[in-house]
Amino acid sequence: MMNNIPDPNTYAALPEEMFVIGEDDTLAEEIARPSTTYWHDVWQRFRKDKLAVAGLIVIAIMTVLCIVMPLVSPYTYDGSDYLHMNNPPSWEHLCGTDQMGRDQFIRIMYGARISLTIGFVAAFINFVIGVIYGGLSGYLGGRVDMVLMRIVDILSSLPSLLYIVLIMLIFGSNIGSVILALCFTSWIGTARVVRSEVMHLKHSEYVLANRLSGATTWHLLIHHLLPNAMGPIIVSTAFLIPGAIFSEAFLSFLGIGIQAPQASWGSLANSAIPVMQMYPHLMLFPVIAICITMFSFNFIGDGLRDALDPRLKK
Fold first, then answer.
1. Alpha helix ranges (H) inside 141-204
2. What's the pTM value of the predicted model, to 2 decimals?
3. What is the pLDDT of residues 70-123, one digit of tens each?
4. Residue 208 lies in a domain
5. DSSP of 48-81, one letter per residue?
6. For a designed S-S bond to 148, which of 137, 164, 179, 227 qualifies (C-beta 3.0 to 4.6 A apart)?
């Protein structure tokens, strides 16, 4: 057994560098993990979702086109040319012309401007209302939470088409009334998500410590509770945008949304119904624009949901 003990003179002959740990900078760089922030880590996971990145690129391109093209194009959304009515797609008119000789491509771009504006504005308003309402309900709890949630239940039970029609009759068919109609109850889903997250987080140690130090309700909500619940809130808001765009297109398709001469994707599809069999391109391109937008926003929402979920962190 004594023969298995290594001879000390063997180690004495080895260079000193072999016994110093961490001196090799190359190995240190390979072992050390670079420090990242939470949002940087979220972006890295989001980038790995090819469908989400593709959807983001499509929305970015569509946003730029709907802003730039109506400014540089020789055609306007309401300019008629009765010598070129119902023309098929060509190099002069990429999406053809409608029954009044108006360039369909510019009208689709103008419709994208209206639809995206309504979608983003409605989602932002619903985000603000839902965060404040759900945050107060979840943090205060008790009777306040019971009263606020019963109001939510009452609003949820109302047929959406009923109050939308009433708002349109009172305020008229314009962008403002459409946004008001879409914001009447769309914030309820966000409020419920925020309430659930705040109720879960308000019993955390850091919240109790700040409460004992004298922090106010608004300080706790804005600086501690809502930032830590921002992941589900962002995902909920991301899915509000395609919902608002589709609702606006549906209302315009029914004839109670955006009215002529203004153009939205729904109104363009509605005006193409009488001549759809003879001139299918008038219906095809607005529907394609709606479908591409819906798919893109849904891909973005799915990518954000996966990226913001810490359980999926690798």
1. 142-157, 160-171, 175-183, 187-201
2. 0.76
3. 888 887 777 777 777 877 888 887 888 888 878 888 888 888 888 888 889 988
4. yes
5. T-HHHHHHHHHHHHHHHHHHHHHHH-S--TT---
6. 137
Burial class (CB in 10 A: 0-12, 13-18, 19+), 289: buried
89 in a domain, yes or no?
Answer: no
CATH number reported for the structural domain that contains residue 116 in this entry:
1.10.3720.10
pLDDT band at 54 (very low <50, low <70, confident <90, very high): very high
Residue 93 burial (CB count, 10 A): 21
- Token readout for 187 is 């914030």
**pLDDT digit string (tens) for 207-234?**
778 777 777 777 777 777 777 777 788 8
Number of domains the chain contains = 1
Residue identified by tokens 């729904």 is 266
What is the maximum span of the chain, computed from C-alpha positions, in angstroms? 108
92 within some domain = no
Does residue 181 have a pLDDT over 90? no
Two tokens, residue 240: 């509000």
Nearest to 159 by CA among 181, 177, 179, 180: 181
Cβ-Cβ contacts under 8 Å for 314 (sequence gap 6 or more) = none
What range does the domain containing 192 cover?
A: 48-67+104-308
DSSP 7: P
* pLDDT level of residue 206 (50, 70, 90 thresholds): confident
Provide Rg for the chain, Cα atoms.
29
**DSSP E strand boundaries for the chain:** none
Buried b (16+ CB within 10 A) or exposed e, 140-165: eeeeebeebbeebeeeeeeeeeeebe
Within a domain: 4: no
